[in-house]
Amino acid sequence: MRTSAFFCLAFLLFACTQRNANHSTKLGGTLIKLEDATSSKENWSKENTLIYHTISEPDNLHPTNGNSGPRSEILQYTQRTLLYTDYENQSVMAGLCDSLPRVSVDGKEFTFHLRKGIKWDDGSDLTTEDVLFSAKAYACPLTNDPAVKSYWDNVSEIKLNPADPNEITYVMKGKAIQNVSMHTGFYILERKFHDAENLLGSFTLQQFHDTNFHAEKFKTISDWATAFNDDLNGRDPKRMNGLGMYRVEKWEAGQFITLVKKPNHWTEQSHDYHEHAFPDRIIYKLNKDENSTQLEFKSGTIDVTTSLSVSSFMALMNNPEFKKDYSGVMSPSYNYTYIGMNEKPDSTRKPFFTDPKVREAMSYLVQVDSVISLIYRDYSSQCRRMISNVSPLKTEFNSSLQAIPNDISKAQKLLAEAGWNDSDKDGILDRMVAGQLTNFEVDLNYMNTSNDWKDMANLIAEQFKKGGIKVNPVPMELKVFIEKARAHSFDMMLGTWGGNSLPKTTLSCGIQNRGCRTVPITADLEVRNPMP
Predict the structure, then answer these.
(1) Is 51 helix (H, G, I), strand (E, B) or coil?
(2) Averaged over 34-62, what is the pLDDT?
(3) How far are the Cα atoms of 35, 261, 268, 492, 513 from residue 275, in angstroms, in the given order?
(4) Which of 1-10, 23-32, 324-333, 469-478 shows the lowest per-residue confidence on average (mean pLDDT)?
(5) Pick from 43, 48, 226, 243: most CB atoms within 10 A?
(6) CATH number of this structure's domain 77-222
(7) How far lies 240's CA from each of 68, 124, 249, 255, 511, in Å?
(8) Beta-carbon contacts of residue 21 (< 8 Å; ≥ 6 apart)
(9) What is the pLDDT of residue 292?
(10) Residue 358 region by backbone torsions, left for phi larger than 0, else alpha for psi between -120 and 50, else beta
(11) How many CB atoms lie within 10 A of CB 370?
(12) Given pLDDT bands bounded at 50, 70 and 90, which one contains residue 237?
């Protein structure tokens, strides 16, 4: 997904995988293979359950309305898309369709043919009616999914084939790099489950795209959207369904989310299914305290994590007893860490970053290499910076691009041109804003889920101080962090943006109990079963 306009400065932290005798890797993409254990220990659990450590809950598990990493990770188990991401080859592959789409000569029409044998939880077949409804649900002006509306703006219409009930064609308004890959990121919804009365059936995509069409004036659309947008649809397991192999069994807020494998799922007929041993249950266990998390791993009560700070990861991997039961790896991912500057602040925030010269100056103030070195320490030599919006892991990455250097003088010159000077000689730049002398003092929001975020925020604050800018690091819960970002109620924010191997990393830590079964853990990491 693309970032919003106010995410102006970004840098990438990424490391190659550490190699040791406990695992091997393939770095053409980000598939990780951890070697199997040669024998089982008596104290290892015999239950086919995976306990997965997480440091934050999803904002919700609604199929269309939401925007957080934990949400995306869980939904990949409960939902399915027309196309899947081929992580190993950095491309797309057929998903709910039996092949990649046929493309018209003009490059604007993409025809998909649905696979046979795909079943919803109620036993009914997946149909093109479900695919068409899904598109309308995303595109409907009253659906609370503003972050993805732009993708659907380029879909002119969707055509069904009366002669073939399994064929559906997307007609695009123009050529775009994501006309195909977008179908790896949008889940297909069951029309009967989400719109039993088929209220959206009387409306078209063209109507939803028409700026003169006022959906709120139609009671049928308003009634559907009110019911569909209900927060309980993303929190109550009874109000969730999907084509994925797992369903949400229980969500105990602030503690855990349990996924249970569906019996006799349609994926069991696929060749890929028999190449993996999937857990009967996956429990996402929330623990934000790093000391407590380390103790849980040492006691063997958690199986897997990809959410450790570097310091916690290194502490565990330097423990010989711990390494007898766990394999660990530093893995590359397609995410990147960024500093977001608010170009469109709400009424509670001053317009510090509306001037492009100010935003450019920020990039010269951040000592990215220093941040990498201090945060990632022993692994910093394996890290690379984000130079463009294309990950260095991509084959299309332009290695000739040069990173913006750290240049305080250049930053101060740009800030002076934008009217920021230290008129009262107190070490902080100031200027007149709305008739009032205003210091360049801003808050930097960051998530309180890891010591890495805290350390990074403090380092950045020190670096900005050298340029005459006072930065106040502000830790907050993920949900609040996202809410303030959406409302433009912030000055600066330090976050991470998820990516994938499609045409687009941060260092992520992986820990796995040697007694775990095989399961794909995230979009970027696959953990192999050490059990015989």
Answers:
(1) strand
(2) 86
(3) 15, 16, 11, 45, 20
(4) 1-10
(5) 243
(6) 3.90.76.10
(7) 18, 16, 10, 20, 30
(8) none
(9) 94
(10) alpha
(11) 15
(12) very high
Neighbour count for residue 532 (Cβ, 10 Å): 8
Structure tokens at 190: 């069951």
Name the maximum alpha-carbon separation found in the chain. Answer: 78
- ∠ CA 353-354-356, rounded to 5°: 85
Q: Which of 488, 496, 485, 427 is nearest to 456 (CA)?
A: 496
CATH fold for domain 39-56+238-333+507-527: D-Maltodextrin-Binding Protein; domain 2 (3.40.190)
Contacts of 42 (CB under 8 A, 6+ apart): none
What residues contact residue 54 under an 8 Å CB cut-off, 6+ apart? 70, 284, 285, 286, 287, 305, 307
> Nearest to residue 85, comparing CAs of 519, 527, 502, 498?
502
Residues with Cβ < 8 Å from 478, sequence gap 6 or more? Answer: 56, 57, 59, 68, 70, 447, 449
Q: 297 by DSSP, 3-state: which? A: helix
> What is the enclosing helix (H) or strand (E) of 206?
helix 205-209
Which two tokens mark 19? 């190699």
| Residue 153: count of CB within 10 angstroms of its CB | 12
Task: Report the pLDDT value the prediction gives residue 16, as an integer from 0 to 100.
Answer: 25
Characterize 340-361 residue by residue with b for buried, 16 or more Cβ atoms within 10 angstroms of its Cβ, and e for exposed.
bbbbebeeebbebbebeebbbb
Cα-Cα-Cα-Cα torsion 518, 521, 526, 528, nearest 10 degrees, comes to -20
Query: What pTM was computed for the model?
Result: 0.75
Q: What is the DSSP letter of 14?
A: -
29: confidence class by pLDDT, cuts 50, 70, 90: very low
Provide CB contacts within 8 A for 430, sequence distance 6+. 420, 421, 422, 423, 424, 437, 438, 439, 440
**Which regions of 353-398 does DSSP assign to beta strands (E)?**
none
Rounded distance, CA 202 to CA 245, Å? 32
CB 33 within 8 Å of CB 49: no
Q: Are 367 and 374 in contact (CB under 8 A)?
A: no
pLDDT digits (tens, 9 = 90+) for 59-73: 999 999 988 889 999
| HSE value, Cβ hemisphere, 13 Å, CA-based, for 250 | 8
Rounded distance between C-alpha atoms, residue 504 and residue 10, angstroms: 13
CATH of domain 335-497: 3.10.105.10
- Rg of the chain over Cα atoms, rounded to whole angstroms, equals 24
> What tokens appear for 179 in the block?
């006309």
Phi-psi region of 384 (alpha: psi -120 to 50; beta: other; left: phi over 0): beta
